[in-house]
Amino acid sequence: MNSRLMPITRKEFIQIFRDTRTLIMILVIPIMQLFLLGYSATNDVRNIPLAVLDRSRSPESRSLLDSYRAADYFRIAYSVDSEAEIEDLISKGNARAAVIIPPDYARKLNEGGAQVAFILDGSDPTSASTALSAAQLISQAHSTELLTERFSRTGSNLRVKPPVEVRTTVWYNPDLISAHFMIPGVIGMILYAIAAILTASSVVRERERGTIEQLIVTPIRPWELIVGKLMPYVILGFFNTIEVLAVGHWWFGMPIRGDLGLIIILSIVFLITGLGIGLFASTIANTQQEAMLTVWMTLLPSIFLSGFFFPLEAMPAFLRALSYLMPLRYYLVIIRSLLLKGVSLDMIQTDVIAMTLFAVGIMTAAALRFRKRLD
Domain residue spans in the chain? Predict the structure, then answer.
């Protein structure tokens, strides 16, 4: 090997190993991506929460529900007494599907053919498509079982018409258009990424150039410096939200069924979370490279564990539990519910409270640490 090449290579390795923080991040991020993608990157949805309205309350209807329990596609989470309760559960996102068994189900079944209604939440096309296919398969399997029992009992020929027919209805996104699901997620990702990355790099850039010291010796108070640094990104985030909403609505046909003012206000609350993470990263990092890597360490889990790409129902239990620590998860529930379902604030108040607590907590911790570092 060239005698001049070895010293340069050795010197570069020394530089890399001296920057321990960056080296650890470089080694950790691939492992994080591997585990997140390995466990979360799946559309094989299971345990879809199902609401049941059984108006028949007969052995025949219980037999049908046992077929849903036996398949791991659904989890009977709610037993309701009215269609209004079903609408409330699906609007809040507590249930992804509902089955309605009519009062005359047992009589119709014994006469040769009964129908049940199956309602799907189309705001998540992946889960809805899986639920639609699973409901049809379960109905066919149950019908085959009933026909087999009837044939063995009477010896008559099998009827061509299935005893149980499932009539499906898709709410909020009847055509199961994926863009209507993805565009609200893109809004959340843009707000989070732009706010965090730009804020972190902006503050660290001041430190790298030495201009942060010039700001410190001025009469500017720490909180004024923080607000002044963050205000441009709040305004940019506001315009980004309007921009994506306008393009999504006019070009991709995404509906905006909720209150536009409420959408913008809650988007700004979520934006504060991204700003806080960027500000906190700037207090940890000494260079813009470190700041970017620090933000990416939080951005990757948020993208994969928030339901942006892959349904949360398809993930293992420990990843679903971990997803509650991701502010983006709550924002995606909020923005999709407002845009696609047109719900009121009380329908999403739990997610709004959780997102607000994250925003206030993260921004407070970041501001205190930033102020302490300035002192």
Answer: 48-171, 177-374
Question: Phi, psi (5° rounding) for residue 91?
Answer: -65, -40
**Dihedral angle at the C-alpha atoms of 215, 219, 221, 226, nearest 10 degrees?**
-30
Write the single-letter amino acid at 156: S
Q: Do the beta carbons of residue 199 and residue 275 sit within 8 Å?
A: yes
Which residues are paired to 167 by β-bridges? 117
Q: Nearest-5° angle of CA 55, CA 57, CA 62?
A: 120
- Per the CB < 8 A criterion, the answer to whether 68 and 138 are in contact is yes
Please answer whether residues 65 and 112 qualify as being in contact, where contact means their C-beta atoms are separated by less than 8 angstroms: no
259-307: pLDDT as tens digits: 988 998 999 899 889 888 988 888 887 777 778 878 887 887 888 888 8
Q: Which residue has the tokens 């536009």?
A: 260
> What is the pTM assigned to this prediction?
0.81
Q: Which residues pair with 166 in a beta bridge?
A: 116
Q: What is the DSSP letter of 98?
A: E
pLDDT digit string (tens) for 246-260? 888 888 888 889 898
CA pair distance 31, 4, nearest whole angstrom: 35
Residue 155's pLDDT band, with cuts at 50, 70 and 90, is low
Tokens of 121: 């939440």
Rounded-to-integer distance, Cα 139 and Cα 68, Å: 9
> Into which CATH architecture does domain 48-171 fall?
3-Layer(aba) Sandwich (3.40)
220-223 — which CB contacts under 8 Å span 24+ positions? 222/370, 222/371, 222/374, 222/375, 223/367, 223/371
What is the spatial distance between Cα 279 and Cα 12, in angstroms, rounded to a whole number?
30
Ordered strands of the 48-54 beta sheet = 74-79, 48-54, 97-101, 114-121, 164-171
Half-sphere exposure of residue 150: CA atoms within 13 angstroms, side-chain side: 18
Residue 277 contacts residue 366 (beta carbons within 8 Å): yes
Closest CA to 64 of 24, 108, 31: 108
The residue ranking higher by pLDDT, 357 or 40, is: 357
